[in-house]
């Protein structure tokens, strides 16, 4: 993208920012950085200054635009609802065209182009999480035809810390008698990291591959435990299949009587709304409705809940680009969780789990961080 | 002094990581929430009063301007570095130092967000009364410098009534303590002079604040009108009846439209004006007082009066008021908030004349105001990218200030003079008045180090 295209697409949008500064109170990056460059207001001003030719693509602009978690809490709390993150992503596209971006991104792009996943391992390793499961069916959850595709996502497939999610979710689906399949080595990255990297042009191949797979399998529904894969499909893919997040699908199965809870939980937990599931996809009720159905579970809301949920620090490729900044945001998140007085946070995103539990583990903070699928499977007994 | 040397000296004081000087950062610290822009020489992030003092001492020696800045939410260009210099951004100094319930005081660092203190106080059942619309992000340093107001200041007074003491860094770097936890300090009332001095006399690093127990009960009402004048008349009638509500806020039709599109506060779209009334105090007698107020509203042709039944309903009504400025940018990209005050009874008449200004310049003007204080906030809508329109906006803004002054009012209710209204100072002050103020500035800051180029008109009349 070049300056002219940026102007056509975003000049009117950033012009709506009156620098009132209300976004400063919410932006997780500003909250920890305390610098104007970190503010959504500042990002709007920079995009506008670029468009107007008042400033060139300085190294600081690169640093600034690549330090946004994409949580969109600024837009949520902005009265004219300026879509700052859209401007930021477009700015990243311009920077990419000028070959001015954090070089760590090249590693991910190379991995995606070679292996179709973000971890740079052979894509066949996507099913390694199954090794610890007992009673794996012969088809290893990979069927030619099925009514539901479970799209596992790169993080859950390749990072051991998140393996529990597919491990529990396939058991839930099995117990509920769902006719489902995973795509195994034929599942590719959804393209989300490319959007965040300002390289959305490169994702077309991934989109077409998956759209074709849905047709081949004949699936009516695609289910995601990853909110970012879910949101990316919703925004960028064209398919007749119904797209659901795991929480929506589980809520439906409970409603149909296919999931019932036997075990009493008897403890207090809090729930963290992942940005891409809550604010960005507007799924707030499904996870809460599930948690309410679990006998004995007492949900204590965070100060920032639903639309006002505060990012864990793991969004927008930030963990890859600036791990220290990401960790500082995670620390705030953990402090917010601790203020609820509970010792367990449930969420529905593998990236949030990685960011929060990664920080907690490193700093020896006693905190249970679990995906909602784990809570569900426990309660099913 | 050479730029590199300046950066080196500042880095010695606050550490290299706490000094910014790239072109990008200079652009980012050249604006605030007003229409003005400037360019600093660099930005420093002090972490203590000691560091502020050392930076100021250095700048004083080298005759470099110093501009203190919190969240940059001010609306009069108060933090615009019009003559370059060092911006002191207080984001690192944001702690609550003490909450002293027994003495009803709190001590804070000045980079703290106003609402952050209020949230902590709420746990004790206490409140800090001033409530600028930007309170969720405005800092105490900014409140101090601008003598910020807010809806509840009708009953409780503005910021100056709630700041009892301050730790101040003077323009030569000396640190002094003015006022304190006790009332009635002898000697000159330096706290009184410093609050609202817009960063031109002293930089506050710590403040001692008055806090109060939260009211036992609160009731929020919304009166709906088919005419803006009727809403204005109601305000005068309520006060004339001897009632001092906590707030009396009016929003006009255009503002209602914008607010409804943004936060859905529940204001009717076909109304010409709504009046937001809040009373607080003891539970006993509150219903009776509310009934009296509603009766006055009806007598003044309110077509409907309702009261918030739940805390959620109350919050929603207030979200509409607090979001009014920002919501306006749904109509046009930009807005200028005029801030004038008139004697309450003059409100209806001045509003009519404001609308004449709107016609004269062919500019859309929305009205939202602290009616109880006679504090108007006409919002002139425009697109900053249209230079001709922008020129007209400045003229219209100045003309509205003239209207307020001519009606026996003044040119700022709570936003300060800053960069924006320097020449309008002559609307309300004689050259002698201004000369007297300049003497105060000279006494504190003879070298004009602190926030130069603000408040006073450039040329003596």
Largest sheet of chain A: 4 strands, parallel
Taken in chain order, the helices and strands of chain A follow as HHHHHHHEHHEHHEHEHEHEHHEHEH
Low-confidence runs of chain B:
none
* CATH architecture descriptor name of the largest domain in chain B: 2-Layer Sandwich
**Rounded average pLDDT of chain A:** 96
Structural class of chain A: alpha/beta
Quick take:
Chain A has 381 residues and is α/β, with parallel strands linked by helices. Helices cover 46% and strands 8% of the residues of chain A. Chain A has helices spanning 3-15, 28-33, 40-51, 59-65, 73-77, 84-97, 104-115, 154-158, 164-175, 192-196, 204-217, 227-236, 246-255, 285-293, 318-321, 323-338, 350-362, 372-380; strands spanning 148-151, 180-181, 221-224, 242-245, 267-271, 297-299, 344-347, 368-371.
Short descriptors:
heterodimer, A: 381 residues, Fumarate Reductase Iron-sulfur Protein, Chain B, domain 2, Rossmann fold, four-stranded parallel beta sheet, 18 helices, 8 strands, B: alpha+beta, Uridine Diphospho-n-acetylenolpyruvylglucosamine Reductase, domain 2, Uridine Diphospho-n-acetylenolpyruvylglucosamine Reductase, domain 3, Alpha-Beta Plaits, 4 domains, seven-stranded antiparallel beta sheet, 20 strands, 21% strand
Fold blueprint:
The complex is a heterodimer of chains A (381) and B (461).
Chain A: H1 3-15, H2 28-33, H3 40-51, H4 59-65, H5 73-77, H6 84-97, H7 104-115, E1 148-151, H8 154-158, H9 164-175, E2 180-181, H10 192-196, H11 204-217, E3 221-224, H12 227-236, E4 242-245, H13 246-255, E5 267-271, H14 285-293, E6 297-299, H15 318-321, H16 323-338, E7 344-347, H17 350-362, E8 368-371, H18 372-380
Parallel strand pairs in A: 1-2, 1-3, 3-4, 5-6, 5-7, 7-8
Helix pairs in contact in A: 1-3, 1-6, 3-6, 9-18, 13-14, 16-17
Chain B: H1 3-14, E1 19-20, H2 23-28, E2 42-44, H3 49-62, E3 66-69, E4 86-89, E5 96-100, E6 105-109, H4 114-123, E7 126-127, H5 140-146, H6 153-156, E8 163-169, E9 175-179, H7 190-194, E10 203-210, E11 212-213, E12 217-225, H8 228-240, E13 247-252, H9 253-262, E14 273-281, H10 286-299, E15 302-307, H11 311-322, H12 324-328, E16 334-337, E17 340-341, H13 347-360, E18 364-370, E19 375-376, E20 378-382, H14 387-406, H15 425-428, H16 431-444
Parallel strand pairs in B: 2-4, 3-4
Antiparallel strand pairs in B: 1-2, 5-6, 6-10, 7-11, 8-9, 8-10, 12-14, 12-15, 13-14, 13-18, 16-20, 17-19, 18-20
Helix pairs in contact in B: 1-3, 8-10, 8-13, 13-14
